[in-house]
Amino acid sequence: MVNEDRVTSVAPVLARSLVGGSWCGEGAQIDIRDPYRGAVVGRMCVSTPAELSGALAAAKAASAVMAAMPGYERAAMLQRIADSVAANAEEIARIMALETGKAIADCRTEAARAPATLRLCAEEAVRIQGEHVPLDGSAVGAGKIAMVMRFPVGVVAAITPFNAPVNLAAHKLGPALAAGNAIILKPSPKAPLSTQKFIEAVLDAGIPEGAVNVLHGDDIAPALVTDPNVDLVSFTGSIPVGKKIRSSIGLKPVVLELGGVGPTFVHHDADLVAAAKASARNAMQLAGQSCASVQNIYMHSGVREEFTEMLLHEVDSIRFGDPLDVATEVGTLIDEAAAVRVMGMVERAVDAGAQLLRGGSRTGAQVSATILSDVHPSMDVASQEVFGPTVTLQQYQEIEPIFRKISESPFGLQCGIYTNSLDLSLAAIRSLRTGGVIVNGTSRWRSDQMPYGGVKDSGAGREGPKFAMRDMTEERFFVFN
């Protein structure tokens, strides 16, 4: 029950390939373990080359069916899918908590967001618009009628990460179907079980055979994204893998939602209470495993002591523990190897002179809330994505030089700034080369309908139903002479 002090476990799940409407699993099986207890909670069937070929053929055939489906039918289908996912949300959330180590409260939130995301996609399915192009501006165009229309690209290959396995799958599956495409989904091998239950719910809603296919295993990914039957690749994950994908697929369009270093500013005129609470929570939630998590806090020297004290107080109130305990706010990292990597970054920073204000310890896959001050920008805990519950505190007198450094850095996902100054807010918006600037909010703020994504090494293209559908369709220009 939802109100239990501790959520009970569920039956082991087998994640299988979905090819043309049929579940199959001929390949090797891999254990999926609970990162908190180490117990096996399910298994994943690694997809074979034959399953890849079958999925490509099924998606290619289904793409014609999806393209011919009227928008209102696609919208109705997505509403049915949303209803089915919502009906299975509690089971999806429990499985997610077991396989990822995320707190059950966060898993329930995600399982509720996924159907909401799908409903947004349903609404956009009937809003795919082109535009009239006036040609009277030149003699050659006078008297002619011209339009631009948008058509589905065909087959979308979507690769999703472990940190939000269900809602991010919804962010790819929903827009693909809404735009009239077929999709081949490859979930993270670190979190395939909740995706299995999500896709089962999708199929229960009734969809054309082959419109949704699922493959498992990282070894299958290169052949998937480079296959000529795939018309667009949508990837959410690490920067190195994103670069490999982009360099391997030639002129094929690609949408990349990659990493960042979570810069958030606290200016001298900020609401310090709000800034401290939001910064602490958005640094630690999901154990820091969000590409936009608050990682680097830049605070004006005039509020350094007061803000630091408030931040530490808020961090101390966050409950780390058993992901299945409903009182837990932060669970584990995805596995012990990830925790070891994070601790290595923290230890190198301390060895180089950073001051450890909180945390800096590890138990298995769980890392304590860690706050570092006196951090030099060159330390990898500041200059590289940590992807763990770790935040650095850096002070400034003049804010413009920090703006320039962020704009010149390889990262450009989102930036938060707390200030009551309209002039400073506009300066941040105009000068920070990032995908988003959140005024009086942190770098991690996101709503599911917004255009979410980055620039530079942080990605290309945008997530969010309307904006993902723009990427998953192609323009076609026509003229009536």
Task: Describe this entry's structure for a reader.
The protein is an alpha/beta fold. It has two domains: 13-258 and 459-480, 3-Layer(aba) Sandwich (Aldehyde Dehydrogenase, Chain A, domain 1); 263-447, Aldehyde Dehydrogenase, Chain A, domain 2 (3-Layer(aba) Sandwich). It has 15 helices and 23 strands. The chain has a seven-stranded mixed β-sheet with strand order 15-18-19-14-13-20-21, sandwiched between helices. A six-stranded mixed β-sheet has the order 10-9-8-11-12-22, sandwiched between helices. A hairpin with a 6-residue loop joins β4 (29-33) and β5 (40-45). The model has no long low-confidence stretch (mean pLDDT 97). It comes from Arthrobacter methylotrophus.
Provide a quick synopsis of the model.
The protein is built from 15 helices and 23 strands. By secondary structure, it is an alpha/beta fold. α8 links the parallel β11 and β12.
Which keywords apply here?
481 residues, Aldehyde Dehydrogenase, Chain A, domain 1, Aldehyde Dehydrogenase, Chain A, domain 2, 2 domains, seven-stranded mixed sheet, 23 strands, 38% helix
Set down the secondary structure blueprint.
Elements: E1 13-15, E2 17-19, E3 22-24, E4 29-33, E5 40-45, H1 49-68, H2 71-87, H3 89-100, H4 104-124, E6 131-132, E7 145-152, E8 155-159, H5 167-178, E9 182-186, H6 193-204, E10 212-214, H7 221-226, E11 232-236, H8 239-248, E12 254-257, E13 263-266, H9 272-284, E14 296-300, H10 304-316, H11 336-351, E15 355-358, E16 362-363, E17 366-367, E18 370-373, H12 380-383, E19 390-396, H13 400-408, E20 414-418, H14 422-431, E21 436-439, E22 459-460, H15 465-471, E23 473-480
